[in-house]
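TA notes, week 10

Several of you asked for a full example with nothing omitted. So below is the full record: structure tokens for the whole chain, then the designed sequence directly under it. When grading your own attempts, check the secondary structure regions first.
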């Protein structure tokens, strides 16, 4: 005996069509025989068929995708990190629900000596990157630029010189761009003091922008230029607020300085430095979590010792009058004759 299994989709369509046809037939018969019960049953069958079609279409078009994505976002992190402590699972979950990231972060450090003040230097930092909105709708994203207040006060020193952004949405939802530039009499941003102090330690510029979804094809690009007066030997930290894919750091510095860059990543040793001796470019094509830190350190190069001759390295003992003599050399190089 062979039992034929009817596919679920086929059963669904048989049920819907049967309900509609049966409902129409019941309506006709009810009207013909003036039977309100039959007419009511026919109406119920027709309504049931129409609802089945509409609900099925909505579930397939909306709820299935939304429910699936919601389950993936909320459940998968706990499955992947089932053996991890709760606080680490929370970090995995935070990364899985990320909707805004940075890509191709490039930081250019330009070091310049301050004439007459050998203990200080001016550090110019040029930053640019792209923002990607991974969601299906526009997202409000904070832009933030901050620098340390000058270690050597200067009334006319501009700290945040230039900030620009393209590919953001205006009030009408159209792609737009903006540029803000400091003037000789006015710096960008405001001074900010820590809660426990009265003296401003940093200068901050910030702005909220609307970033379109990446599916729109609009690329959002951000760039900025800042200046700082810092000690000749110091280290500074660049913090990337959002998860970032790919970082490149370039540095221009005087011959009397040495610069070191270290990425805040578990694979920081894989960073590609060019050239090997006194590098000027560091690159790591990896994914960085939000608020990852890139450290740059600089210091004066040690003064090289003068080269010594072989006679200074290997001292031959001689007679009291200074003339040479036989025997073994002070360096233990063997007999001389």
């Amino acid at each position: 005996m062979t039992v034929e299994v009817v596919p679920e989709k086929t059963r669904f369509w048989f049920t819907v069509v049967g309900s509609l046809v049966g409902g129409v037939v019941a309506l006709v018969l009810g009207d013909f025989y003036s039977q309100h019960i039959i007419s009511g049953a026919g109406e119920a069958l027709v309504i049931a068929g129409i609802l089945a079609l509409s609900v099925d279409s909505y579930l397939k078009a909306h709820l299935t995708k939304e429910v699936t994505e919601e389950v993936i976002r909320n459940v998968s992190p706990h499955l992947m990190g089932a053996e991890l402590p709760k606080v680490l699972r929370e970090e995995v979950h935070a990364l899985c629900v990320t909707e805004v990231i940075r890509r191709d972060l490039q930081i250019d450090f330009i070091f310049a000596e301050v004439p007459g003040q050998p203990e200080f230097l001016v550090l110019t930092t040029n930053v640019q990157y792209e923002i990607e909105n991974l969601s299906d709708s526009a997202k409000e994203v904070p832009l933030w630029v901050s620098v340390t207040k000058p270690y050597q006060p200067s009334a006319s020193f501009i700290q945040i010189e230039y900030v620009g952004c393209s590919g953001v949405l205006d009030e009408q939802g159209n792609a737009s761009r903006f540029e803000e530039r400091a003037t000789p009499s006015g710096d960008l941003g405001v001074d900010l003091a820590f809660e426990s102090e009265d003296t401003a330690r940093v200068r901050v510029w910030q702005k909220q922008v609307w970033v379109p979804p990446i599916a729109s094809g609009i690329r959002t690009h951000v760039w900025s230029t800042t200046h700082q007066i810092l000690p000749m030997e110091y280290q500074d930290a660049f913090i990337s607020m959002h998860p970032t894919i790919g970082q490149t750091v370039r540095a221009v510095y005087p011959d009397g300085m040495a610069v070191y860059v270290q990425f805040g990543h578990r694979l920081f040793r894989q960073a590609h430095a060019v050239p090997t001796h006194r590098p000027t470019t560091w690159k790591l094509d990896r994914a960085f979590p939000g608020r990852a830190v890139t450290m740059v350190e600089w210091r004066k190069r040690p003064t090289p010792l003068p080269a010594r001759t072989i006679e200074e390295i290997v001292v031959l003992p001689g007679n009291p009058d200074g003339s040479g003599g036989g025997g073994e050399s002070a360096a233990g190089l063997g007999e001389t004759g």
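The helical segments are 8-33, 36-80, 86-96, 310-313. Use that as a sanity check on your answer.
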